[in-house]
């Protein structure tokens, strides 16, 4: 708890202006962005939008340097492991899912909520990308709206301002009003 207190003492507290990371982080939420030392898959990071450097944005890390990522028929694979996705229900025009990173048994990896348009059904596809060392592959939790590494490609670590560690906002069906956020260590392919 002392580590969290120290980290929050260095945190930049910001109000979220967009729904790019909905439904996990929505417009109007408050987030604590802390300086980073090691970024892991599942972390939400803050950076300047590569398309508009005057605009700070939040994106989720799905792959780190040395990993490959493939997106096909709505499924994401990092290395050869598919992210676990469980349908949670619908919210207006969107289908909500809970994605979970793999982890070494018996541990469970980080989880978060994503949303995709219900109609027309989303079927993203992207060739495998090998993320260069010193780079990250980032995606928005709102999978159909905002641009991310599917458009820009991998982003250099030097572009990252910090990691979101705390989110405070209105509770809804799938999330509490307060949440600590953390990624999970990358799991490598076996032989």
Largest pleated sheet: 8 strands, antiparallel
By CATH reckoning, the class would read Mainly Beta
Rg, please?
A: 16 Å
Low-confidence stretches: 1-7
Write the CATH fold name.
Umud Fragment, subunit A
How are helices and strands ordered from N to C?
Answer: HEEEEEEEEEEEEHEEE
Number of domains: 1
Helix content: under 10%
> What portion of the residues fall into strands of 2 or more residues?
35-45%
CATH homology group: Umud Fragment, subunit A
N-C termini distance: 38 Å
Q: What class would the helix/strand composition place it in? A: mainly beta
Instruction: Write down the overall geometry.
Output: globular
CATH architecture annotation: Ribbon
Kindly report the average pLDDT value.
85
* Annotation, overall tally of beta strands: 15
DSSP summary: helix tally: 2
Descriptive report:
The chain is mainly β. It has one domain: Umud Fragment, subunit A (Ribbon). Helix content is 6%, strand content 45%. It is built from 2 helices and 15 strands. Strands 1, 2, 3, 4, 12, 13, 14 and 15 form an 8-stranded antiparallel beta sheet that branches. Strand 8 and strand 9 form a beta hairpin. The protein is globular and about 35 Å long.
What topology emerges from the helices and strands here?
Layout: H1 2-9, E1 12-15, E2 30-34, E3 44-49, E4 52-64, E5 68-72, E6 75-78, E7 81-82, E8 84-91, E9 94-100, E10 111-117, E11 126-130, E12 135-139, H2 149-152, E13 155-156, E14 160-168, E15 178-180
Key descriptive features of the protein:
four-stranded antiparallel sheet; Umud Fragment, subunit A; about 5% helix; globular; 2 helices; 15 strands; about 190 residues; disordered N terminus; eight-stranded antiparallel sheet; mainly beta
């Amino acid at each position: 708890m002392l580590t969290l207190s120290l980290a929050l003492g260095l945190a930049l507290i910001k109000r979220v202006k967009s729904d790019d990371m909905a439904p996990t982080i929505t417009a109007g939420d408050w987030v604590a962005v802390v300086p980073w030392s090691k970024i892991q898959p599942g972390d939400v990071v803050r950076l300047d939008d590569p398309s508009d450097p005057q605009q700070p944005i939040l994106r989720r890390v799905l792959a780190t340097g040395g990993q490959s990522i493939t997106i096909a028929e709505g499924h994401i694979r990092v290395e050869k492991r598919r992210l676990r996705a469980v349908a949670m229900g619908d919210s207006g025009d969107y289908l909500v899912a809970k994605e979970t990173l793999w982890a070494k048994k018996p541990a469970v990896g980080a989880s978060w909520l994503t949303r995709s348009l219900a109609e027309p059904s989303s079927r993203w596809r992207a060739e495998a990308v090998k993320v260069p060392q010193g780079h990250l592959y980032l995606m928005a939790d709102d999978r159909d709206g905002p641009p991310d590494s599917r458009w820009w490609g991998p982003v250099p670590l030097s572009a990252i301002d910090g990691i979101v560690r705390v989110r405070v906002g209105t509770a809804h069906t799938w999330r509490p009003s307060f949440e600590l956020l953390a990624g999970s260590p990358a799991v490598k392919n076996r032989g």
